[in-house]
Amino acid sequence: MPIRLIVGLGNPGPEYELTRHNAGFWLVDNLANSLPGCRLQRESRFNAMVARTSIAGNEVWLLEPQTFMNRSGQSVGGLARFFKINPDEILVVHDELDLAPGVAKMKKGGSSGGHNGLKDITAALGTQEYWRLRLGIGHPRSLNLQQPVADFVLHRPRKDEQVLIEESIDKSLRVVPLAVEGKFDIATMQLHTA
Predict the structure, then answer these.
(1) If you write DSSP's letter for every residue of 92-141 in order, what string do you get?
(2) Is 115 marked active-site?
(3) Given 3-state DSSP classes, what are the helix, strand and coil percentages for the chain, each rounded to the nearest 5?
(4) What is the pLDDT of residues 95-135, one digit of tens each?
(5) DSSP string spanning 148-181?
(6) What residues correspond to the site Stabilizes the basic form of H active site to accept a proton (predicted)?
(7) What is the pTM of this model?
(8) Does 70 carry a binding-site annotation?
(9) Measured distance CA(152)–CA(154) in Å, rounded
């Protein structure tokens, strides 16, 4: 199945804009900016920033929930139901503690790994069987930081980490058209070996 909805996860508001937890927003913002005439606009019925665009000749929705992270499912579930988009046609882009900065991985299904945005989306869709694009932000322990996880994700990455995260977003953007076409084997191989 091709991807019909790409969701970037983050928290709304300027105080969160540059925090690690907003890596999903960063990718979707970059994607929207790279597509001619694509502009995310507020859509109150989904409580989200939304754009309808074309990628690889296919119609695709871009979505950034404007709820807080732990209520992301409201926006995702609402838009998916309204436009009759199946869970396996959804790609959720999110920050991933278990991957180092600079690493990006794509997979379908699996647990939320403690990510509250994914937990809420799974509850809203009634299944874990949707695609995820995981952008590594590192873990405070692996980065030799004493910060609690909740504090870590709500802070800006260090400069060297930011550069690596931006590189992983660039790599990910190159495989998005393949995912939209449903060519997940090629997309994951390119992403995981880039």
Answers:
(1) EEEEETTS-TT-EEEEES---TT-HHHHHHHHHHT-S-SEEEEEE---TT
(2) no
(3) 40, 20, 35
(4) 999 999 999 999 999 998 889 999 999 999 999 999 999 99
(5) -HHHHHTSPPPHHHHHHHHHHHHHHHHHHHHHHT
(6) 95
(7) 0.96
(8) yes
(9) 5
Query: Which residues form the domain of 51?
Result: 5-193
11 is in an annotated binding site: no
Q: What is the CATH number of the domain that holds 153?
A: 3.40.50.1470
User: What is the enclosing helix (H) or strand (E) of 61?
Assistant: strand 58-65
Residue that has been written with the tokens 């998005």 in this structure? 176
110: left (phi over 0), alpha (psi -120 to 50) or beta: left
Phi, psi angles (nearest 5°) of residue 36: -60, 130
pLDDT tens digits along 15-74: 999 999 999 999 999 999 999 999 999 999 999 999 999 999 999 999 999 999 999 999
Torsion of CA 96, 97, 98, 100, to 10 degrees: 90
Structural domain count of the chain? 1
